[in-house]
Amino acid sequence: MYQAQQSEGACAPAATIYEEHQFVALYREEAPKLRSFLRRRIWLEDDRDDMVQEAFTRLAASRSSTAWSNPGAYLHGIVRHLLADRVRAWAKSRPLDPTACAADQEMPGPDAAAELNQMREHYRLAIDRLPPRTKEVYLLHRVDELGYRQIAEQLSISMRTVEWHVAEAIVRIGKNIGNANG
């Protein structure tokens, strides 16, 4: 549906690949789907809008041909990733151990804690299902927080290959988490 213009190359930034009207059409088609997906997971509309905006910003900055071959799936992968990051940040800020909470701190409800634990489990299983090299690259990027260049040097692969593995991991994790959630 949204085909990249071949004259600019598959790795050119989005702004040079897509015409503005194509990107607007993509936004009009995918943004409501992303908001609908997030509506069940985030209560605040502003937070949902920010997350959708962030996903499109990352897509626009992406040089990955994988992202542009199926931008809808890529956007959903980004949103799921952002959601996982949000849950991870929230989990770090709030201890789930009831004995570790001070008496005046508000504890997460049992539903929120169960949902968080379920999401963590789905995320962990999705990472475990990645092909070994993709998993290695993804974990170096996300857990060890290495940049693409550092990963490329460490594994003796090109930066483009690193980008491909990270994008592939995001798409696969998104699909696995999506399948797990129904």
UniProtKB/TrEMBL annotation:
Keyword Transit peptide applies: no
Annotated ranges, domain RNA polymerase sigma factor 70 region 4 type: 124-169
Gene Ontology molecular function terms on file: DNA binding; sigma factor activity
Keywords (A to Z) from UniProt: Sigma factor, Transcription, Transcription regulation
Record GO biological process: DNA-templated transcription initiation
Alphabetized InterPro entries for the sequence: RNA_pol_sigma-70-like, RNA_pol_sigma-70_dom, RNA_pol_sigma70_r2, RNA_pol_sigma70_r4_t2, RNA_pol_sigma_r2, RNA_pol_sigma_r3/r4-like, WH-like_DNA-bd_sf
Domain RNA polymerase sigma-70 region: 26-89
Pfam family, one: Sigma70_r2
Record family assignment: Belongs to the sigma-70 factor family. ECF subfamily.
UniProt cross-references to PANTHER family, sorted A to Z: RNA POLYMERASE ECF-TYPE SIGMA FACTO, RNA POLYMERASE SIGMA FACTOR FECI-RELATED
Annotated protein name in UniProt: ECF subfamily RNA polymerase sigma-24 factor
Native organism: Sphingopyxis fribergensis
Lineage: Bacteria, Pseudomonadati, Pseudomonadota, Alphaproteobacteria, Sphingomonadales
